[in-house]
Amino acid sequence: MVLDKDFRKNIVYIDIETASKAASFDDLEQHEQVLWDKKSKNLLKDSQKSPHEKYPLQAGIFAEFSKVICISIGIFKPKKKQFSENSQQAGNSSQADVYQNSNHQPEEPYSLEEHSDSGQKNETRELFFYCKSFYGHDEQSLLQKFCTFLADYKVNPLRFCAHNGKEFDYPFLARRILANNLALPKPLLEIQGKKPWENKHLDTMQLWKFGDYKNFTSLELLAHVLGVTSPKQEKSLWGDQEVELVDGSMIHSLYHEKKDLKKIVDYCERDVFCTAQIFFKMNSWPPINPKNFISLTL
Questions:
Q1: Do residues 129 and 276 touch, judged by C-beta distance below 8 A?
Q2: Which pairing describes strands 121-135 and 111-115: parallel, antiparallel, or unpaired?
Q3: Which residue, of 198, 255, 258, 261, has the greatest Cβ tally within 10 A?
């Protein structure tokens, strides 16, 4: 799928991180233990393991047994103060860790030609990739903030773009929003019963398949194939600070044992930026300069 470059303003790049509701099988209520026991018997992977062993390894990917702990989104905008202030007002007010890269001057400005309603070109403004995360232990609260952000973000038409989003991120978010007695954001996540071609959201893994549905291609592998720096490889993407590299298999331990949401948020934002880079590569658009990345996360 090759899109006109003006459409870049209408895409919200997104990634989510999830974790099992409880730290271990023994921490579940008795009825939930029974339900997980039934569910785990149908899981082919690690079929020799007991329900106790499978729970920390696999419960985090099933919306019925887990919760959203982080939603990271990325949006292209001209660098201007108003967007930064408004975005921070919608975010978390505690556990403040700001990963800010706004002091770096872009080496190769990324720009988008702005046009008036009459179609005449007004100016060329430099674009920055603004990333923001909604995260925490209170799932209902972070989902409510995410839904409020979408309601207040007045861009039409608006699409999500994620890696494996149609199989995981989009349906998982919709299920957890309903499970928390919240209304689905209209029309973004009203995707029940829609045919595949009626779902207008973008998915870099689906785009890479070119109609071939036989295998799964990870974000890390696709980044390598396309020559995009993988967030699992780059230690200084957000600046000079050292960052411990994380992969999905570490989320359960980071959340339940180490209580380290900061690393999970950093990992999620890296994946969002990587997804945007891959999508640009697929559309033959100029690469995104990492120095144009600005995190608004609190």
A1: yes
A2: antiparallel
A3: 255
Does residue 2 contact residue 210 with C-beta atoms inside 8 Å? no
The rounded distance, in Å, linking the Cα atoms of 212 and 43 is: 24
Residue 84 CB partners (closer than 8 Å, separation 6+): 130, 294, 296
- Which residue is listed with tokens 């957890």? 176
The H-or-E segment that residue 57 falls in is helix 51-58
Q: What is the DSSP string of 141-196?
A: HHHHHHHHHHHH---SS-EEEETTIIIIIHHHHHHHHHHTT-PPPTTTT--TT--G
Nearest to 163 by CA among 117, 222, 123: 222
DSSP state of 281: H
- pLDDT tens string 172-211: 999 999 999 999 988 888 888 877 677 779 999 999 999 8
Q: Where are the domains of the chain?
A: 5-14+68-295, 22-64
What pLDDT digit, counting tens, does each position of 76-117 carry? Answer: 887 754 444 444 444 443 333 323 333 333 333 344 444 334
Structure tokens, 76: 């292209």
Q: Which CATH class is domain 5-14+68-295?
A: alpha beta
